[in-house]
Write a structure and sequence with these properties.
heterodimer, A: 166 residues, B: mainly alpha, globular
């Protein structure tokens, strides 16, 4: 039997989500015009089945996990599991970087935000080829911005570059 | 319109300079995606969908289909030279492909993979051409109950073949259906799960979810494990051609792989990865040289590579004729076509023949382009493997943000995409498959619509789904698909009821 802490937490999260989804489905208002199946019926159906399945999942974890069918997994070509300790520091860094990118995307504009984010990413992940990577960063940010806006007419946020008339 | 008129129409559309360029760009990008480990065809199609904005739907599907089967071709290169599959349907190719390369036969291995992919891809396209209109004609007789049951069957079939646990796969599917309920209910005008957020009134954008779950998730997965030792890359020594002995062994394996891949992976909806595994299993049973499998047998490369390309072509029959995706990648393509204002399904053959036949014709052209790209240019593809992983991942982030932002100019979409990236990573850690989410999301609204239409016809009675024979058959298929892994246990439990205690003791 495979006892996995992550699976246990996941089972509780999935159960909580299913319950929340189902409860909210009961608050979906009925429309003025009567219908065979109101707007809340399909969500209620999904919620009930999800709750039952998440209950089974929780039960499986409380019993000590499930013996995984590796033979079946091999036949259907299931993706490799991620096992072992996650590179939490790197994942955390990438998550913060992406959230920062979303935060500054319109404020600093595409070109400047992409330059900053890409450069920070390169400096953190591998700074052995700064000149080569620096050139790539400039092309990916400013040159791509110019190509998209001037040639392809795709609207991208300009940010402070608007002051330069770009 | 008769068959030959349709073929002429199709080639007339496919050989326009613009569509030839799109076909080439699609197969080129698809091969790049297939070669680069860490990005599969699902991620690749999702990332490149923004390129199709502003295109007419015919050109868009030509591009996306090129990426799809191009990735099947490209995936074999890394399997053979680096023992790392470029995508899931090339996993099995590693077993014998890498062994052939170690023996100095990388050239014949690559040639066998490319030629078998070409043969299988052409066969699947021919089947689509011959049987597609016939399947579409049958599907036109389907009413809302049949379509609802067909979607239930499609969801359960894909779910039953995704991941190690049926419970987790079903939960993923239901999560996808749940996401599809966000937004204004079109029939009643009532907002659902929007929490007062105006931007959610139109629901969650399909691309936001797809790119988050696949592309950004891959960034987290790959960068989290960057310290993994790089596999030694073998070089191509000698020529690329097959010997007379190779051709003798290649031919029956190619035929077996093509047929099994088309029917199992395509028509039955099992997908390219399953098709490649089934083909390998078939080679182990049917090949005269089965003892050599796993040690560098050419059948071990030919069979699976034929199967995965035939399956990709077969999956397009589901998509075009029934409007039901038969795999994760075609689910993403369906989402993209709906975004472009098209509804794939049986009416498509009648209402948009230039779209369907143009695509079919371009698949022939694309297969030829791939053969030319993959054989002589294999040295160039191999150089792609030298791109540092961290740069590749940063580019994926860049293109993800660019693609999602250009849809609606919405920063909220960027945050949601990152959120789904985190969800995708957590799902991977806990072994929840992601592709059923996409399928559920794409089919959810349509399923609800067909269910409601059925209940209007039956005046509220659910029996309509079991009293109509085709609908009943499809629901039985769904039940069989979901319960399949438990039949042994069910059989034992039933047997236990009938076998007496002394007999049980004897056994």
């Amino acid at each position: 039997m495979n006892v996995n802490r992550e699976d246990r937490i996941a089972s509780l999260v999935v159960a909580a989500f299913s319950l929340a989804y189902l409860i909210y489905a009961f608050f979906i208002p009925m429309p003025t015009l009567k219908q065979q199946l109101g707007p809340g019926a399909f969500p209620k159906g999904i919620g009930v089945v999800m709750l039952i399945l998440s209950g089974i999942y929780v039960f499986q974890q409380l019993r000590g996990g499930v013996k995984e069918d590796e033979k079946r997994a091999a036949i259907i070509g299931a993706e490799d599991k991620i096992e072992g300790k996650a590179g939490i520091k790197t994942i955390g860094f990438m998550l913060v970087l992406m959230a920062f990118y979303a935060f500054v995307f319109e404020r600093l504009g595409y070109a400047i935000s992409t330059f900053v984010v890409f450069m920070v990413g390169v400096l953190y992940l591998d700074r052995r080829h700064l000149v080569r990577d620096g050139i790539i960063v400039v092309i990916s940010s400013f040159v791509l911005y110019f190509i998209f806006t001037a040639f392809l007419r795709v609207q991208l946020p300009a940010g402070p570059l608007k002051l330069l008339g770009l | 319109m008769n068959f030959w008129n349709n073929v002429t129409l199709g080639f007339g559309v496919a050989v326009t300079p613009m569509n030839l360029v799109f076909a080439f760009v699609g197969v080129f990008l698809g091969t790049v995606i297939g070669v680069l480990p860490g990005i599969g065809p699902m991620t690749g199609v999702a990332l490149l969908i923004p390129l199709t904005f502003g295109m007419n739907p015919t050109s868009a599907i030509i591009l996306m289909a090129g990426i799809y089967y191009g990735a099947m071709y490209g995936g074999s290169t890394t399997s053979i030279l680096v023992n790392t599959p470029g995508e899931s349907s090339s996993v099995v190719t590693c077993l014998d492909g890498y062994e052939m390369a170690k023996k100095g036969r990388a050239g014949p291995a690559l040639a066998a993979a490319a030629i078998s992919s070409f043969v299988a891809g052409t066969f699947a396209t021919l089947m689509l051409m011959l049987f597609g209109p016939w399947v579409a004609k049958i599907a036109l007789r389907f009413g809302p109950p049949e379509f609802f049951s067909l979607m239930v069957a499609a969801l359960t079939l894909v779910t039953s073949l995704a991941g190690r646990s049926i419970v987790k796969a079903l939960l993923s599917t239901l999560f996808g259906l749940a996401i599809a309920t966000i937004g204004i209910d079109l029939q009643s005008g009532v907002p659902r799960y929007t929490f007062g957020n105006l931007e959610l009134l139109d629901g969650l954008e399909f691309l936001v979810v797809a790119i988050g779950l696949f592309a950004l998730c891959e960034v987290f997965v790959n960068l989290a494990d960057m310290s993994q030792a790089v596999q030694e890359r073998l070089s191509i020594k000698g020529g690329l051609w097959l010997t007379k002995e190779d051709w003798k062994r290649f031919t029956p394996a190619c035929i077996r792989g093509t047929l099994s891949g088309f029917f199992v992976g395509g028509i039955a909806g099992a997908g390219a990865a399953v098709a490649s595994f089934v083909s390998y299993g078939l080679e182990k049973k049917a090949s005269k040289y089965r003892d050599e499998l796993g040690k560098g047998a050419i059948e071990g490369v030919t069979g699976p590579e034929s199967a995965n390309n035939a399956a990709a072509g077969g999956a397009l029959i589901h998509l075009l004729c029934l409007g039901i995706p038969g795999s994760g990648t075609t689910a993403i393509m369906l989402g993209a076509l709906i975004m472009l204002g098209l509804q794939p399904g049986p009416l498509l053959f009648q209402q948009q023949p230039q779209f369907v036949w143009g695509l079919i014709a371009s698949m022939y052209i694309g297969n030829v382009m791939l053969l030319v790209l993959n054989l002589p240019l294999v040295g160039m593809w191999v150089k792609l493997l030298d791109v540092p992983l961290y740069l590749l991942m940063l580019f994926i982030v860049l293109f993800s943000f660019l693609g999602v932002y250009t849809m609606n100019n919405s920063v909220q979409d960027l945050y949601l995409m990152v959120g789904f990236g985190v969800i995708g990573y957590l799902m991977k850690r806990t072994d929840f498959p992601a592709s059923p989410i996409i399928l559920g999301m794409v089919l959810g609204k349509l399923m609800e619509e067909k269910m409601r239409q059925s209940l209007v016809i039956s005046d509220g009675s659910m029996m309509i789904f079991v009293t109509r024979p085709i609908s009943l058959f499809l629901l039985i298929v769904a039940v069989v698909a979901i319960t399949n892994p438990y039949w042994k246990q069910i059989g034992r439990a039933i047997g236990g009821l009938f076998i007496s205690e002394p007999k049980k003791a004897q056994l």
